[in-house]
Amino acid sequence: MALINRISRLVKADFHAVLDQIEEPEQLLKQAIRDMEDDLAAAEQRSLSCGQEQEALLVRKSELEATIAEVDSQLDLCFESDKDDLAKSLIRKKLEAERLLKRLNSRFSANGKYLEEQRAKLDENRATLESLRQKAELFAQRAPSHRDGGAEFDDIAWMAREMNIGEDEVEITFLREKNARSRS
């Protein structure tokens, strides 16, 4: 039974090694970087567009506020001149402008929050992309020596060896933990 398990592990290891050779991790990493750069460019474009919309909303808000102020001064003149019909028409105009201003303010606020979120995500994605680029650079520096068949320090194999915990270590630590808990 142990022989079958060992052969099974050997076949799995060989199969995974073949897959690793086929996948070409360096190419996969480069493609991931290209994809992330494309996504980042699209996000920057959305953020720029949102910023431009925010500026347009701000200009429109200023125009409406100026219109409302002008209608107020016209209303003062109408009431001084006893022109009630004209005043009612101006009041309608003022109410429409105030309603539109209210909608613009809520849209401006929502757009501002969205813009802030997009900029935060953009900064986060830029940091992630930079990290990927650094990893790709490290990988590219390590890859030529590996292809030449040179001896290379294998981080994963080293970690696997370090992570291998024997039964005796488990037993000793178990006894220490048990002893420490029995004292308290």
Overview of this protein structure:
- There is one protein chain.
- The chain is an all-alpha fold and 184 residues long.
- The chain has one domain (2-144).
- Helix content is 91%, strand content 0%.
- It has five helices and no strands.
- It has helices spanning 2-23, 25-80, 84-147, 155-163, 167-183.
- It is elongated and about 105 Å long.
Kindly state the number of beta strands: 0
Output the structural class.
Answer: mainly alpha
Mean pLDDT across residues: 82
Radius of gyration (CA) equals 34 Å
> SSE order, as H and E?
HHHHH
Report the biggest beta sheet as strand number plus sense, adding barrel if it closes: none
How far apart, in Å, are the first and last alpha carbons? 45 Å
User: Stretches where pLDDT falls below 50 for ≥5 residues?
Assistant: 145-153
Q: What is the count of helical runs?
A: 5
Approximately what portion of the residues adopt beta-strand conformation?
under 5%
Helix proportion: over 70%
What would you call the shape? Answer: elongated
Q: List the domain count as a whole number.
A: 1
Keywords for this structure?
184 residues; single chain; 0% strand; elongated; 91% helix; mainly alpha
